[in-house]
Amino acid sequence: MDPSVALQSGLANTSLPDAVVTTVDPPVTADILGQPISEKSALTLADETSSTLTAINGTDRPNLQPHSTLLLPSFSKTSNFFRNVQWCADGSSLLGVTERASLEVLDLTNQANTVELKHRVSLPQPAPILSTAWFPTASSLDPASYCFVAATRDAPIKLFDASDGRVRASYKIIDHRERFIAPHSMAFNMYMNRLYCGFEDAIEVFDVHYPGEGTRLHTVPTKKSRDGIRGIISSLAFAPDWTGTYAVGTFSGTIALYTEDTGAQVQNWLEGFEGGVTQTRFNPAQPHVVYAGFRRTQIIARWDLRNPSEPDILYDRGVVSTNQRLGFDLSPDGRWLISGDEQGQVSVFDALGEQGRVGTVSAHQDSIGAIGFHPSKPYVVSASGSRHFEDAESSSSESEESEELEDVEVVVSGVGVRGPIVRQKQRGPMVVDNSLKLWALQ
């Protein structure tokens, strides 16, 4: 279907909710790409860039240079950090999800030829945030579309106005015990009229224009069935070819392809690699190419849907041994793939598989949980941070320093005696590097 026709039949004729809605409560044959070719602090990534269409010249290797570093005041001397960051459609704003359950909206400003990220609004949430998604055409220049959805544990999904944080609408997923379920993944379809939400053994589909409850697609027909896909739906991604095809990944290690027209019927499987799926993504310029990232492995796998039985390329992005989601991104023209590892190294690969790894840079001092190309300007954003705990030996060796003596009254054999009581300091997670960095492509 022609995209213009699709848009006219979708969101163009109706508007998003703009009022607050109250809710009642294995071995593979592919080659592993990638030995670092540079130890320089600058990434050998693109030459000349365009600020109007794509961020990278597809014929040259990008050149990534440090631009600026942002540390929110609330992050100072705390263990808070960004778990995920996402550009909106035109790149005018950035949505961040923090470790301490807060949604942060930042604006990319350009004043007096100075580009920087400025904080717009902070939205603390009552519980951990499991997933977020910008509306597909979100722009700070268009108030109607400037919004995003966020899923907080044990609460309805909320559609937030990004300008001031007010709730425009809410969408409820309710289980058989009348409890709210928060999805681990969300994605809008290409027509922008439906919101797909993945949780355990099911996908809930909402009509964006009608808040409330949605339609449930069970990915497992029955409890004892061996068909379908089991587990938590951890990632959803739509193909950019307007066919309604979307990829579904689970923490149990399955990736399947569905279409909007066929409901819960699996259309194909992506096989040949096992691991809990953390992200799936279609190439924006080649809809038949799919990428996936996994838990506790450094591999990003690529499939050509014309041969989905095994990945045709495996990208080695560095050290990854954690369950934390470490994201990757593709340049707007589909030419380059970028990702970080848990040691703060950023790697850039040829997404078409012709050159493998084209460069590395030491970007942070901690795990890079999120990284993304700006959709239209020559910038890349990266966010780092993870929870670190002292090991047992370190705790015992430093126990004397961590003890506090309090002169309090205690009772011994019925007699009040004043003396010292040893109290152990509470130990919590530490963060090594919780910075957000903006990189310039030159």
From TrEMBL:
Record-annotated membrane-spanning stretches: none
InterPro entries listed in its UniProt record: SWT21/TCAB1_mRNA_Telomere (IPR051150), WD40/YVTN_repeat-like_dom_sf (IPR015943), WD40_repeat_dom_sf (IPR036322), WD40_rpt (IPR001680)
Mind telling me which Gene3D superfamilies this protein's record contains?
Answer: YVTN repeat-like/Quinoprotein amine dehydrogenase (2.130.10.10)
- A Pfam family that this protein carries is WD40
Q: Where is this region: Disordered?
A: 384-405
Q: What is this protein called?
A: Telomerase Cajal body protein 1
The top of its lineage is: Eukaryota, Fungi, Dikarya, Basidiomycota, Agaricomycotina
